[in-house]
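Chain X:
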Amino acid sequence: MYMHLRTNLPKPTMELRGFPVPREMQSFPSWNVYYEYIKAYAAHFNLYKHIKFLHYVTSVKRVGNVWKVKHRHILKGEVFEEEYDFVIVGTGHFSKPNMPEILHEKLFKGTIIHSHDYRVPDVFTNRHVLVVGAGPSGMDIALDVAKYSKSLVHSHHSKVNFRTKFPDHYIRKPDIKEFNETGVIFVDGTYEEIDDVIYCTGYEYDYPFLDKSCGLVIDKHSVIPLHKYMVNINEPSMVIMGLVIRACLVVAIDAQARYATALIKGNFTLPSKEEMMSEWQRQADIIRSKGRPISDIHFLAEKEDQYYEEMSEESGIDRVPPVMFKIRTMDTEAKLENLYTYRNYVYEVIDRNTFTRRLETETKTANNSALP
């Protein structure tokens, strides 16, 4: 978590069910404020007593009709093995940096880090900095560093039409062709001298503790096959949480947790393995027919609200209100308009379908009823 990090979604979409975010919380809270909210949630629901801290899971294996789970106490070195009926994998996928392989990188005499290790921008004061990647972290870190750096070179191939007016020392570049000792040559043949490189190139899916008996195919960009983006089709007593991309992630994980709970309690029955596989294959075929990589199988994007409806219909859990997707849609447009100002908006939920948005300094609110 870097010093100036704030959430890139407004607080109504960062709220966990049954535990309202504090009214005084900033519309786009800082990382430390939101971290305190998460800890307060855990304390409120007395969750700490259920957590084995300092235990590192080393193996999850399917043996017969049970899951055998091995874990090691980090300090004492003791190893434990236990059996479970269900396994929920909730480690996320933002731990192992995805490092690009670029020609002659080892020749480069400057520094190279991944956004995973980025903390403070002032160490780049008066430096020539290259940021690689234009996802949420790439855009956020580029603007953060640009306040201090002598030049900010931004290499990416995103087709997103950002309308932000960047500072004069912000230099947009295409993908990197190769490094040399003092800088970078880009695929268009241009060259920039660089002191420091920050790879904002995402993360790999990394579950080294999952044995092949789990029945999943895992590579660094995808985990397949999953029903409803979460249930292991080959071994449906395993659920993988939080793999959806381009969504209100907190809302989505909260819904997935409620779905998984209903499944474990026996409140509903999954479709047959054949039905789940057929549905998954249909999604995969659509992606491949568009010439897209199978990693797109994790994208929700415009399907987010439909996903919540389908989860509710299948499991009986309360449906995520459509207003959440509507807020994300407007927030996305605000990001495209101006990356410097989109966090100045305050979003307030009126009902399941309606919200208001205003600037923090405004006293009047404007309803979004004109939205499609």
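Chain Y:
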Amino acid sequence: MREPAVQTFERTLGDYFRERLTDCADALEPRPEEDTLWYVGSVLARLGDSRQLFSYEEGQLGLRPLALLYKDAHEAAADHERCLILRQLGDQALFIGALFPERYARKGFRQDYFVGMGGGAYDYLADNAASGRHVFAELSERFAAFLDLAARACTRHPGRSARDVLTLYRQWLTSGDERLAEQLRALGISLDDGRQLH
């Protein structure tokens, strides 16, 4: 007798964040567009990998300040380059403004700083990006709401918080420890052998 096929569902870190964002999005009025939720989930997953967030400058690993990214965009010779830098600025403002507000508040950076920098970057992209202009327009118009949404999606819920998942994922990326991989798989996160974020 043949056993019934078992369907398995695997999700990436991006899927995990998109699911959390979708669950939290019902509290916003109007509800964000699905494309925008997908984009924000991808940003959280991508920048959750420290290799995507930090960069090497003058021989040191660090986080380029938003003001310097703005300066880089202002000085960019080509519009395509400016758009790339402003997308990095907007994404970084969204990520660190949502996940680490208390750390930056101690340094004197309040939410309005992230809203101004990120919202301004996305506003430019809404008019000039090669694609996704409707996503950038919504992010620009409602940046403060998306900061709050991303923060709520990353707060504790039964089981692990999103920050816990990111920490676990980073530890696994660094070590390749199979026990950490099992914990991630138990959360339903798909891992490939190359240890790369999807």
